[in-house]
Amino acid sequence: MRIQGKVFAIITCVNFLSMNKSFAFWDQSHQLIAGIAEQKISEKTKTEVYRLLKIAIATPGSEELARNSSTMDTAASWADNIKGYRETENYSTCHYTDVPLTKEMIGKDINDDEAMAKLKDAVAKSNYNSVNCLKSSIKTLLTNSESDVKKAIALRMVLHIVGDIGQPLHSAELVSGDFTDAGGNNIKLDKPVNIINIDGTSSSANNMHKIWDSSLNIYFQFAYDPERTKKGIYTTEETNATKKDSISIIKNKNFKFLTNSLENSSNESLIEGWVLDSYKTAVKSVYTDIKLPTSDFSSQATITASFTKNWKSYHDDRADIIGNQIKKSGIRLYFVLNEIFDSGKIDNPYKTLVENIRNDSSIQPFGKK
Hints:
Helix 1 packs across helix 8 (148-166), helix 6 crosses helix 13 (271-286) and helix 8 (148-166) packs antiparallel against helix 14. Residues 1-22 have low confidence and may be disordered. By secondary structure, this protein is α/β, with parallel strands linked by helices. It has a four-stranded mixed beta sheet with strand order 5-4-7-6. The protein starts with 26 loop residues before the first helix and ends in a 10-residue tail after the last helix. The protein is built from 15 helices and seven strands.
């Protein structure tokens, strides 16, 4: 893990570059997850993935964006890149599923059945959430009658949403009366955290969601430029770092352990199980060691919080957690892609998951709800 060493500085002024990316792992993490999967997928899968990534997509986004994001790593950011365009209806809420938790639950072990019931209630409230959008995108790739353009869009959604599900605050929201923290977006930090970018610049993470979107800055982040991001432009330094880090992760002995763990977990047979995993991580680890208001905040739109100790302590205690979430997302992605594009020739623990989506008539290809 290429952990950078300057992450612990705290911003004391407000003149740093702000980031308008509050609803998804930032580019570095998404591209790293896809980079892990690319190292592991079969040649047959890789051939079909790259065939679809070369297809022009005029909307949403632009053909220029599609051309610039035609590798697995850069394509994993496409679902965020299109936010710079207007034609993103039905895409914006595909990045998360808001499963509620209360202040009393923070830090505690939770019952899987009770948590799954909350999750299913959250999924039922909207056709467009991370669970339904991922299932529909997989269904599109499995449906022969769907056009290559639709499959190209669906593939990019799969590359992205699998990563989003791994970010714990894409699967949880703290609620109290009328207050919802919107996955940590409405919990403002009293002292914003300084996120170090790969080019040496800094970015301000001023709420809980952003610091987890940055993967707690365990890897250097990509500097955010709205015009560059809209066009899907990434530097050679950034793409080389992604490849280097993905190879390093796969070689780590913990990667094989995690792979075996997921292969033998019953929760992995459902997309909902992936969300449940992230939700439990949020309840147990994300909201602990932060000071929330002691007074009633049930009618407030936002609240201010601080770390119980400091940012360095919070970071150190959770670096392995977010690192494992990235690894798990990469593992899930390569297994699912192999089962979609190279089914039958590879012993795949996610075969049941994909086949259930294929055979479930209630799941429609993306955009047909």
